[in-house]
Amino acid sequence: MTFLTFFAAVANILTPVVATASIGFVWQKWRGDFDRSFVGNLALNVAAPCLILSAFSAPNLTLASVGQVVAAATVMVFLVAAVVIPLLAWLRLRYRDFLQALLFPNTGNLGLPLVFFALGGTGLVYGLIFSNAIMAFHALIGVPVTSGSFSLRRLAKNPMFVTFVFAVLLKALDLSLPAAVLEFCKMIGALVVPLMLMALGSSLASFVPSSSRVILGLSALRVGLGSLVGFAVAEGLALPDPLYGAFVIQSGMPVAVLSYMMADRHERRAGDVAAMVLSSTAMAIVMFPVIFALLRWGGHI
Fold first, then answer.
1. Which of 50, 139, 229, 277 is most deeply packed, by most CB within 10 A?
2. DSSP 3-state of 173
3. Do the domain assignments include residue 2?
């Protein structure tokens, strides 16, 4: 593959992602009235559940492959935690302030669009499963660590998680939704990628960059360590294609906007976490061509 061919392939993936996110960024900077709450709720509570139901209707998706994704996500989270927790202690940083931000990648706003444009609809199915697993870990580990309290009620009320469980049950019972319902879900589910990208762009427009070496180092750690662990787990578990590529791309994503929201809600150095979202997103965009090249070199794309 020539350099120009590789450059064109990467540009075809990143251009629609950056252009769509720029809509939210410019809107927020110019108008200042981008309703992130409404757009975020529409994407996560309406469009994403519809996309999950339509994705699970794919005949090539099995419960075994769902189990593979969840198992891989679990291993990834605990391996990253094994590095991050001692490091935070060595740096004398409170784990309640930064652990959630470092453990969980932005699989929704940025990960899903990149997986979709790099791997297509089949890869997006695996990306959605991975994203749901990370969402569950946010509720089971991230929020309790950041807030200091634990509640399964939050997870039970999450529309994406509830829909995910419902879709798994349908698959286990070999049942399918009516054709009209599936067409509706496909139509509404198609809103997920553009809405999440615009919401991400709007969020980035509101954050202030940081020149702190510690914050920049933690941002690089989220992207670099996530990518390394992603490759290691994908190889170790011998994940099949396109799950391999979707898992690696998602694992190396930046700090999630949800981590900032939790830090802000519970007064956990939200300004620093916001700066990490901004800097790590830029790093992930720059790092993506390298990840894409390694995946292509390995025959996984």
1. 277
2. coil
3. no
